[in-house]
Amino acid sequence: MTTMKRRTLIGGLALGAAALAVLPATAQQRFDGVTVRVATFGGGWDKAVHKYAGYKFEELGGKVEYVTAPPRDNLAKLIAAKGRPAPFDVVEMGDLTWVDTFDAGFLQKINLANIPNTKDLLKTQYDEWKVASWITQEGIVVNVEKFKEAGIPMPERYRDLLHPKLAGKLALIDITQAGASQLLVGATMDAGGTQENVDPGLKFVKDANPLQFWKVGAQVVTLMKANDIWAATMHAGFAVQMKRAGLPVTFVHPKIGTDRRGLLKEGWLGVVKGSPQPRAAEFFINEYISAATQHGLALERGVVPVNGAARAKLIDDPVLKEMFLIADSDVAKMVSVDFNKFNLDEATQKWTRMVSSR
Amino acid sequence: MRARWHLILAPSLVLSLALLLASQFIFLRGSFFKDLRLGRLGTEFTLENYVRFLTDSIYVDSLILTTRLSATVAILTLLLAYPVAYILARMTSRWSMVLLAAIVAASFITIVIKVLGLIIIFSSGGALNQTLLWLGVVTKPVTIVGQPSGVVVGLMHFTMGFAVLLLYGVIRTIPRSLEDAATIHGAQRWRVFKRVIVPLSLPGVIVTALIVFNLCMGAFTSAALIGGGKVYTLPVLIQQTVIMQTRYAMGATISAVLMAVTLIINLVSIAIAAWLGSVRRLTA
What we know:
The complex is a heterodimer.
Chain A: H1 3-26, E1 35-40, H2 45-59, E2 63-68, H3 71-80, E3 90-93, H4 95-103, E4 107-108, E5 131-143, H5 144-150, E6 170-173, H6 180-190, H7 199-208, E7 212-214, H8 217-225, E8 231-235, H9 236-244, E9 249-252, E10 255-256, E11 260-261, E12 263-272, H10 278-288, H11 291-301, H12 308-313, H13 318-323, H14 328-332, E13 335-336, H15 344-356
Parallel strand pairs in A: 1-2, 1-3, 6-7, 6-8, 12-13
Antiparallel strand pairs in A: 3-12, 4-12, 5-8, 5-9, 5-12, 10-11
Helix pairs in contact in A: 2-10, 2-11, 6-7
Chain B: H1 9-29, E1 33-35, E2 41-45, H2 48-55, H3 57-90, H4 95-108, H5 111-121, H6 127-135, H7 148-172, H8 176-184, H9 189-217, H10 221-225, H11 234-244, H12 248-283
Antiparallel strand pairs in B: 1-2
C-alpha cells in the first residue's frame, strides 16, 4: 500500500469515526416498543397534547398513554402507589400541586440536556426538577352585552363585581379548583393585604355571594349561554373558547393595587421518580414545550405559551390579542401566588366554614 | 329432608362482605391515626379524628344536611315513583314495556349529563322559567343551582328510574285478583289501595326507600354540580378532604361515620318495619 493510499484510508476511517461520534447527537432517536405514560388533564386537553406533541413520539415508534385527571387527583394516585412502580412517567402539575409532589419526593431529576427547547423558556420556567408547560391568566370573564343592557360598568377590579345589579349573576371559582388561590390572593392584595393572610379575599368571596362556586368549566359556559350568569372568575382561556363559540364575552385582567394587573398560574411537567423511561419522558416534555406545540395549544385551548417564540406569534390572532396579556412588560406586572406564603389548607378551612355557615 | 335454600345466599354474602371489607379496611384503618398530610399517617392509635368530627360544626352540620336531603329525596321519590310503577305494572297495553324500557334507558344516562340537563331546564331563559313567568306563577326565574332544594331535584332525577323499576317489580308480585276480589266485595278504589295494595307492597316500598336513601347518602355529583360549591354534603367534604387537602385519615373518618350512620338508619328502619308488620299481624 502506497503512502498516499494509506493516508486516504486513515483519513476515511477517521471521517467515519467522526461521523459515528456525531450521529447520536443529530439523528432522531427512536422509541420502538417504548410506552410513555403521561398524567395530564382530561376534557380534551390530552387529545390536544397528543395532536401537537404525543404523535411525534409515536412517529418514532413509541406509544403514549394518557392518564387524565386534575393534578390533585394524579397526586392522589402517586400517593396511593407509594412503594409500588410509578403509575406514570410524566406528570403535569399545577403550581400548588408541584410543591406537594416535590415535597413528597415523587419526582426525579430531569436531564435538561435532553430538553433543548428550554432555550425558548425564561430561566425561571425550568430547573432540574420541573419544566413549565403552560400559563393561564386568571381574571374575570364578562358578558359584555348583559353588562351593557343592565347599565353595569365594565369591572376593572375584583371588588367591582360587588355591584348590586350583579347579585345572583356571578360565578366564582370553587376553592377546590387551582385558580381559587389566584382569586383569593388577587382580591386580598387589591384590598391592601398580603399573601400570608387572605382574610380580605375571603371577605370579598362572602360579600360577592355568587350564584355558584364552579368546579367544572363547562358548567359555567352552560350558565353563561343561558344568561344565568353574566360574569365569572376564571382563566382567559375560557373567555377565548366562549368567544370562539359565539358568546359576547371579553376578559378583564383585574387591577391589583396601584401598579399590578392580572394573575398568573403556571403548569409544570415533571418526571416521576422510578419511571422506567426517563429518556422517553424527557423527549415528550421537549416536544410539549416546542414552539409548534405551544402555539397549537394556545390556539386550540386558550392557554398562554411558555415558549417565547410561540407567544410572540399570538399577536396575529385578534381573539388572543384581546384576551391575553402578551407583552413582556405586561406579564411582568402580573401577580403570581407564592405557595410558600399562601396557606391553601388554612384558606380552604376558612372558606368551607364560611360558605357552609351561610 | 328440607332444602336449605338460605345456603344459596352464602356465596354472594361472602363475596359482598369480602369485597366491602377488603376495599374499606385499609382506608378505614387510617382513620385511627394522625393525619400527616400527603397520604402520610402517624403511627400511634388515636381517636382524635372522630373527636374532631363530633365536635366540629362543619362535619356535624354536613351530616345532618346529608341525612335530611337523603330522607327528603327518598320520600319525594317514593311519592312520585309509586303511582308510575303501579300504572305500569297494571297496564295491559304493550306500551307498558315501551315505557319501562324508556325508564331503564334513562337510568343508564350518566348523572353528569342529567345534571347539566337540569341546569339548562331551570335556567332563567329556559322554557320552564319562561312558562312560569308567563303564567305569573313566579315573579322571578326559579334557580336550582347553589340551593339544597336544587340538590334534592338532582338526586330525585338520579334515583327516580331505579325507584320505579324496583316498585314495578314489587307491584307485579301482587295478584290483580286480590284487587278484583276486594272491589267485588264492595270496597272503593281508595280503600282497595289502602287496605290491599299498600300493605302488600310495604316491604318492597321500605326496601326501595332505603336503597334510594343509601344512594343519596353517598351521592357526590348532584351535590357538587347543582350545589354549586354551597351545599356541603358529606361526600363533597370527603372529596375535598381527600383530593384537595390529601388528608386521608380525616377523609376516612368522614367516610366511616357516613357508613356507620347509613347502616344504623337502615337497621333501625328495618327493625321498625318488622315491628309494624308484627303489630299489624296481631291486630288483623
